[in-house]
Amino acid sequence: MAGKINKVRVPMRERPVDERIKRFVEVPFGYSEDEAIMEASRCLQCPKPFCIEGCPVDINIPGFIKKIVEHKFDEAFFILKKDDAMPAATGRVCPQESQCEAKCVVGKVGDAINIGKLEAFAADWARKNGVKDTFEIVDKPQKIAIIGSGPSAISCAVDLRKMGYNITVFEALHKAGGVLQYGIPEFRLPRDLVDYELKYLEDLGVDLQLNVIIGLHRSFQEIKSEYDAVFLGTGAGAPRFMGIPGEELTGVYSANEFLIRVNLMKSYLFPEYDTPIKVGKHVAVIGSGNVAMDSARSSLRLGAKVSIIYRRTKSESPARAEELHHALDEGIEFMELVNPVRIHEKLNHVHGLEVIKMKLGEPDKSGRPRPIPIEGSEFILEDVDMVIEALGTLPNRLFLDRAPEINRNKWGILQVDENMKTNLDGVYAGGDAISGGATVIRALGEGRIAAKAIDEYLKK
Ligand SMILES: Cc1cc2nc3c(=O)[nH]c(=O)nc-3n(C[C@H](O)[C@H](O)[C@H](O)COP(=O)(O)OP(=O)(O)OC[C@H]3O[C@@H](n4cnc5c(N)ncnc54)[C@H](O)[C@@H]3O)c2cc1C
Predict the structure, then answer these.
(1) Segments forming the whole domain that contains residue 268
(2) Which residues does 317 contact at the CB level (< 8 Å), separation at least 6?
(3) Ligand 1 interacting residues, C-beta cut-off 6 A
(4) Same domain, 245 and 373
(5) What pLDDT, on a 0 to 100 scale, did the predictor assign at position 3?
(6) End-of-domain residue from the set 128, 157, 182
(7) How remote is the CA of residue 419 from the centroid of ligand 1, in Å?
(8) Per the domain annotation, does 134 fall within a domain?
(9) How close is the Cα of 33 to the center of ligand 1, in Å?
(10) Whose CA is nearest to atom 13 of ligand 1?
(11) Which atom of ligand 1 is nearest the CA belonging to 255?
């Protein structure tokens, strides 16, 4: 059997570095039909497909791949869409290397099947060819309010609407999609395809109300009494800071603020959009997750020299392998085993970043080696004039403070049971609001679990 396995992945063609670092266009070109069929043909169609075990929403991975081999791209798309409301997005942003592809049997002897890129191929093909899945909805009388419009909210809304419930989604911002809209840059996730996948909500008859902040424009208590059930998909949009001297200076951003200005307010398209952003000559990005990579690669495209400052090493970086690879390819400096201790100033503006060298110790609670400061090893990166902190996020207090009756832990992370139910009857939650920050696919999965539980609750 092993002799017959094609161990080598069909390579993904990518936009050349010198071209892409000046623009916010997508980096991988995506598979052509022939390339997709060739890559899909490497799948062994295992009788016990471990790849599905690695997928938080249980996509029938061998099933959709088989349809690609058979040139039935529309059927491949229908299989994907059954369990995943946004396959074009998840195909691009899921950490496949630690999920489905990590379990791929071919991956034990060679390159795992490129499941993510095949998923994106099938979703893109359907969009380009106007293929949509069909549904028949039998309306039910109950009304459900969904707060937020990120991935957890979208999957919950889709499933509940298909069951026949009347759904209203309330979104604080002027565009729906959550992080997919305001956080992840266009060069990873083009907005036309996010908008297309969101249009599905409209097709289903979901009422999407933008520019409504629950807790400010309308109270949670009012929503709860008006609707038969509520889902909270409010995410975790509040940034964390290091707490070092100098963080109040001009030129220090949280990654969220920086990425919202760049992506949602389209500052990268200034002067076409009237929303300029000032980017430093040398930007230091603190952290090494996907958010840090997005901040670093956006700063680079806006003309800065960029250094990633990370207290561990590349091997411990939590970013997706593809993002780290692209960032390094694009010439971003990766400074390992250093941690900021002070931001220096000149005329109230960032003027140098002082860091301390670190060494790795025994694993900590995260399972990664603990970074330990090396006393007396401080030095200053003199020319740093802008700092972006990408250190994780927490749920926003604006909503939490106005809904004190919902149980949360000391960090504001909502507490739910295995069915995503909060302590309040009829109130469910999912996504980053219950994790503090995880992945798109996990959020989609939690939205689905909540939808099922809400249906059972309303049937009673
Ligand atoms: C820059 C960045 C890059 C990322 N990259 C990846 C990646 O590559 N792969 C991956 O899998 N994950 C990635 N993630 C994580 C992923 O995007 C999140 O885990 C996911 O989006 C969480 O989904 P959610 O349903 O909790 O909603 P979110 O996407 O967090 O959206 C929540 C929505 O709720 C709205 N809202 C909040 N409060 C209210 C209120 N009171 N009233 C009305 N609306 C409200 C917000 O405006 C927002 O639109 C990234 C995150 C960021 C920030």
Answers:
(1) 241-391
(2) 288, 289, 310, 324
(3) 93-95, 147-153, 170-173, 178-179, 183-184, 213-215, 233-235, 237, 259, 290-291, 294, 320, 396, 399, 431-433, 438-441, 443
(4) yes
(5) 52
(6) 128
(7) 20
(8) no
(9) 32
(10) 439
(11) 1
Tell me, yes or no, whether 304 and 169 share the same domain. Answer: no
Give 380: exposed, middle or buried? Use CB within 10 Å, 0-12, 13-18, 19+: middle
Rounded Cα distance between 213 and 219, Å, is: 9
For residues 366 and 264, membership in a common domain is answered with yes
327: how many CB neighbours lie within 10 A of its CB? 24
Q: Residue for token digits 């302590």?
A: 423
Residue 347 lies in a domain: yes
- Atom index in ligand 1 nearest the CA of residue 319 equals 8
Distance of CA 242 from the midpoint of ligand 1 (Å): 21
Please state, in angstroms and rounded to a whole number, the distance separating the CA atoms of residues 375 and 221: 52
Residue ID of nearest Cα to ligand 1 atom 45: 148
Q: How far is the CA of 278 from the centre of ligand 1 (A)?
A: 25
- Residue-level pLDDT at 366: 81
Question: Is residue 419 domain-resident?
Answer: yes
The number of distinct structural domains making up the chain is 3
136 lies in a domain? no
| CATH number of the domain bearing residue 411 | 3.50.50.60
The pLDDT value given to residue 2 = 45
Q: Which of 198, 234, 293, 401 to mutate to test the pocket of ligand 1 (most atoms within 8 A of CB)?
A: 234
277 alpha carbon – ligand 1 mean position (Å): 22
Residue 1: what pLDDT? 43
Q: Per-residue DSSP letters for 172-197? A: SSSSSSTHHHHTS-TTTS-HHHHHHH
Cα 44 to ligand 1 centre (Å): 35
Centroid of ligand 1 to alpha carbon of 438 (angstroms): 9
Q: Kindly state whether residues 117 and 195 are assigned to the same domain.
A: no
Tell me if residue 273 falls in helix, strand or coil.
coil
Peptide bond connecting 271 to the previous residue in cis, omega within 30 degrees of 0? yes
What is the tens place of the pLDDT at every residue in 205-239?
Answer: 999 999 999 999 999 999 999 999 999 999 999 99
The rounded average pLDDT for each run of 10 residues, N- to C-terminus, in the chain (460 residues) is 77 96 95 98 96 95 98 98 95 95 96 98 97 92 98 97 98 97 96 93 96 97 98 96 97 97 92 91 97 98 97 94 95 98 97 98 90 97 98 94 97 97 98 95 97 97
pLDDT tens sequence across 300-313: 999 999 999 999 99
Looking at the CA of residue 94, tell me the nearest atom of ligand 1. Answer: 11
* Ligand 1 centroid, distance to 179 Cα (angstroms): 4
Residue 367: the pLDDT is 86
Q: DSSP string spanning 69-126?
A: HTT-HHHHHHHHHHH-S-HHHHHHHS-GGGTTGGG-SGGGTSPPP-HHHHHHHHHHHH
Identify the CATH number of the domain in which residue 98 sits: 1.10.1060.10
